[in-house]
């Protein structure tokens, strides 16, 4: 009788586990389909690629030897007006010279080809974020399938994320770099990777400088040193000081 009860319990637990796996697969599939559908609709039916056009446009003229950070408003407006890009170009150059230099290879491609490559790269970066997040959740004792389902919910159940993909923003790469920092920051042989990632983030989104302050407070001086080393590697570019000055002036402007 006991053996029969044990076997019945095992069968029941196995059935429950199978149902949980099926439910997790359904959740992951639904979120992935929603992400693909929403992004495709934004790109094909409601194209607003202002951010990607921003990266593409300024990388292109930077490659021609133009100091994009010293352009007067009238000069910049004239260059945008004469541009042949099929979409609106957003704002003034706010990214660092290192970012625009790294983006130059894409600016050599036709616009729509470059955007296709960019959105594919963003998709792979998003997949990497889901995998890293699932690994973190799995370490808490959660089953692997449930971990991936929870990671998918946390990563994909977000309208702003679809907008990042749809208009070609860089925020998904920032998220990936943040997860890599979390992965390597407490591994002494690999702190150089975390420092390099933080340096890349600061070159793109200076407002994340608060993380540098936190690492100083946590006395993770090795990581901070690697971050400063990464920043110094790009400081040699002639436009770097102009970019820093422009960002400082932007931060000093009173809020509306």
What is this entry, summarized?
The chain has 256 residues and is mainly alpha-helical. It has helices spanning 2-44, 50-63, 73-82, 97-107, 111-138, 144-156, 159-167, 171-184, 191-204, 209-217, 221-234, 240-252.
* Helix run count: 12
Described by strand count, sense and barrel closure, the largest sheet is: none
Shape assignment = flat
Q: SS-based structural class?
A: mainly alpha
First-to-last CA distance: 77 Å
Question: Which helices and strands, and how do they pair?
Answer:
Elements: H1 2-44, H2 50-63, H3 73-82, H4 97-107, H5 111-138, H6 144-156, H7 159-167, H8 171-184, H9 191-204, H10 209-217, H11 221-234, H12 240-252
Helix pairs in contact: 1-6, 1-7, 2-4, 5-6, 5-8, 8-9, 9-11
Commentary on this structure:
The protein has 256 residues and is mainly alpha-helical. It has two domains: 2-187, no CATH class; 188-251, no CATH class. The protein has twelve helices and no strands. The chain has helices spanning 2-44, 50-63, 73-82, 97-107, 111-138, 144-156, 159-167, 171-184, 191-204, 209-217, 221-234, 240-252. The termini are far apart. Mean pLDDT is 79; it is low at 248-256.
């Amino acid at each position: 009788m006991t053996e029969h009860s044990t076997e019945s319990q095992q069968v029941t637990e196995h059935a429950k586990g199978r149902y949980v796996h099926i439910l997790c697969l359904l959740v992951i599939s639904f979120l992935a389909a929603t992400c693909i559908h929403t992004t495709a609709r934004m790109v094909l039916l409601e194209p607003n690629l202002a951010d990607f056009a921003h990266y593409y446009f300024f990388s292109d003229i930077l490659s021609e030897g133009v100091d994009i950070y010293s352009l007067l408003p009238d000069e910049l407006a004239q260059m945008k007006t004469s541009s042949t890009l099929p979409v609106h170009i957003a704002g003034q150059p706010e990214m660092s010279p290192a970012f625009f230099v790294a983006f130059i290879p894409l600016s050599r491609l036709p616009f729509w080809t470059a955007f296709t490559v960019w959105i594919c790269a963003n998709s792979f970066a998003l997949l990497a974020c889901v995998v890293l997040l699932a690994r973190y959740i799995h370490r808490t004792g959660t089953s692997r399938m449930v971990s991936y389902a929870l990671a998918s919910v946390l990563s994909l159940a977000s309208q702003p994320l679809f907008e990042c993909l749809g208009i070609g923003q860089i925020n998904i790469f920032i998220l990936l770099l943040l997860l890599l920092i979390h992965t390597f920051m407490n591994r002494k042989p690999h702190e150089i990777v975390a420092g390099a990632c933080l340096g890349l983030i600061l070159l793109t989104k200076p407002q994340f400088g608060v993380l540098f302050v936190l690492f100083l407070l946590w006395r993770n001086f090795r990581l901070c040193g690697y971050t400063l080393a990464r920043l110094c590697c790009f400081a040699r570019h002639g436009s770097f000081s102009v970019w820093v000055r422009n960002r400082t002036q932007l931060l000093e402007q009173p809020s509306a």
